[in-house]
Amino acid sequence: MATVLVTWATRYGSTEEVAHAIADDLLRQRFAVNAQPITGVGALERYGAVVLGFPLYMGRMHKDARRFLTAHWSELSQRPVALFVLGPFHADEKEFAVSRNQLSKELAKFPWFHPVAQEVIGGRFDPQKLDFPFSFLPALRKVPASDARDWDAIHAWAANLAPALQHASSR
Ligand SMILES: Cc1cc2nc3c(=O)[nH]c(=O)nc-3n(C[C@H](O)[C@H](O)[C@H](O)COP(=O)(O)O)c2cc1C
Fold it and tell me: How remote is the CA of residue 6 from the centroid of ligand 1, in Å?
């Protein structure tokens, strides 16, 4: 029975929390799900579909996601992949447009990659958590904390994933 892999890259944990919420939603839809951090993922053979999440940093995809796409391009080309990407600090359409544009530029570096579903999700920012090198940017430390993750929208996205992941078998 094919399983859906839900995997994520993260620096400060907000993408991981979203990934777990999506994995739980898929379980409730009776998919067999394996949720694990991107750095621990080996061969993709046993997975019928993949849900991949990563955050944007300085206009770029998280480096672990870049490595994952590079390492697994052949397997990822052969199964449906749904993509969610965290970024905007606020529920502001202009911020979302910037992030979507950054994502497009990043994905253009992987022309073989055609996600069956793709969503930019608001991110979380906490100046107290910044570590090197971001902690050395005084302007960033003054940005107020925010959490723009829209959980209703996240659950709605997960609820509509089933047809896109159709090659993965349901239990
Ligand atoms: C130093 C820094 C730079 C960031 N750069 C971008 C960016 O260029 N584009 C964007 O959409 N979001 C950017 N973000 C927002 C993150 O993607 C967002 O905070 C996300 O929720 C972080 O995910 P994580 O907690 O899983 O690491 C940045 C955040 C930080 C702290």
Answer: 20
Q: What is the pLDDT of residues 100-139, one digit of tens each?
A: 999 999 999 999 999 999 999 999 999 999 999 998 899 9
Q: Which domain holds residue 146?
A: 3-159
pLDDT at 167: 60
- Give the atom of ligand 1 at the shortest distance from the alpha carbon of 120: 11
Provide the pLDDT for residue 170: 47
N-to-C CA span, the chain? 8
Supply the pLDDT for residue 171. 44
Q: What are the residue ranges in the chain where pLDDT is below 50?
A: 169-171
Establish whether residue 96 lines the binding site of ligand 1, counting it when its CB lies within 6 angstroms of any ligand atom.
no
CATH number of the domain encompassing residue 58: 3.40.50.360
Kindly state the tokens that stand for 100.
Answer: 């979507």
167 within some domain: no
Handedness of CA 151, 157, 162, 168 (dihedral sign): negative
**DSSP characters over 102-170:** HHHHHHTT-TT---SEEEEE--EE-GGG--TTGGG-HHHHTSPPEE---HHHHHHHHHT-TTTTTTSPB
